[in-house]
Amino acid sequence: MRTNYISYLLILCTILFVACDDFLDVHPKTEVEGTDLFDDEDGFNDALNGLYIKMTSTSLYGRELTFGFLDVIGNCYYDAGIQTYSYAKDYDYANADVEYIINNIWIEGYNIIANANSLIENIQDKDPSFFSNGNYNLIYGEALGIRAFMHLDLLRLFAPSLAYDPEAVGIPYVKAFSYNRTPSSSVTECLDLVLQDLTEAAALLSEVDPVYLSSESTERYYYMNYYAVRALMAQAYLWKGDNQNALLAAQEVINSTKYRWTASNALSTSSDESVDRTFTPETIFALQSNQIENNILGYLYGQSSDNTAPIFATHIDWLASIFPTITHSTDLRYSILFEAGGSEPNYMVSTKLWQKDSNGDDLRDEFIKRLPLIRLPEMYLICAEADIDNAAQYLNVIRHNRGVEAPVELTTAPELYDEILLEYYREYITEGKLFYYSKRHNRQYIGGRSAYNLTAEFDTDNYTLPMPQQEIEYGNR
């Protein structure tokens, strides 16, 4: 009998990763019982930190699931200047280079899940008294949150949305670190398992997480904190079509008052060093990475040898369709977060992750090392979508805090859904959010599909990425 492909690759990838990072030295419990890593509390902290570091891989949130592949297929860019991404923009998932990107998303995503499972199983074997200062709850809750986070994104990529197929088969929801095959669950079952993990994580974190318990504004955005878990629950409920619970979860994050809008003078300042392009006060969950500059070089920042625009460029006419005249003159997202790319005046690139001054020098550490994954505006967008009758109110809060005083005056649901999509484009280019919105609604078009036409039709089958062929064959999918 052939070994399940996921299990084999998870163990293989873990072993390969261990060669570089001892803190992820995890093995199946059947192979090594009581590994040294988990003999003390520091080992658990190291294993947890290893999960966050692994998430910054360029195959995941260090590129492909933020400003890279996911925004390419979300049609955030007018051009994708190298062949691999040009094929991806055309949804040629069978192209060898594109297939390589897709397979690595699957493999590295499940590798993180495997390591999270090892951590979870080992902490379940410990008494809470083994840990100091509530760290049992913190480590356990964060690991559950990461496992749910990764499963949710893999589900949103590799399984159909419920709008496309209510009875759709999902992905394997893996909750044990072993060689045993995990059968695929339905999309609904996967979402229930995501929410089960997040509910348990929230209960654990609510007892100890300073960001939840403190009356002060305690920053824990580099960790899967309580409000990050609740924000994820809002995402999962929305994907499930449970608007009531999505609204409640998003409102809890908003009403916590732990997160505030970035002041306009932090965006419109003339001092490059002070521009907070990653919106620090709004950050609910982010990854810390020393490699952001390297990861974006040539993609969003810097020029090729012929001085042409970086790979992920937009067109000024495409931007004009996102930022109409009534908003772009005052919208800080338009005036601050885009600059001309290379020598071609019609091409613009997002500066959100640049964090450089005019001399090319690094700016403040907290800006240049932050990779935001969940921010406050998304909670308002979720509220708008979950409560469409009051959507304009939520959208106007976002617009006001971005310098746009002209209110949304749309009244019909289709118009409001279109406006929500435009707000996602204005707010989340380079953050990997656009594809999910269009897929959730099974929209017959996806923004920017043809040149800068936001309404060009495309095949909705392209919303679902193909699983690796070996997984289909060996895992009997």
Automatic annotation (TrEMBL):
GO cellular component, one term: cell outer membrane
PROSITE patterns linked to this entry: PROKAR_LIPOPROTEIN (PS51257)
Pfam families per record: SusD-like_3
Signal peptide: none
Alphabetized InterPro entries for the sequence: SusD-like_N (IPR033985), TPR-like_helical_dom_sf (IPR011990)
Record-linked Gene3D superfamilies: 1.25.40.390, 1.25.40.900, 2.20.20.130
Domain (SusD-like N-terminal) ranges: 22-238
UniProt-recorded name of the protein: RagB/SusD family nutrient uptake outer membrane protein
Organism of this sequence: Plebeiibacterium sediminum
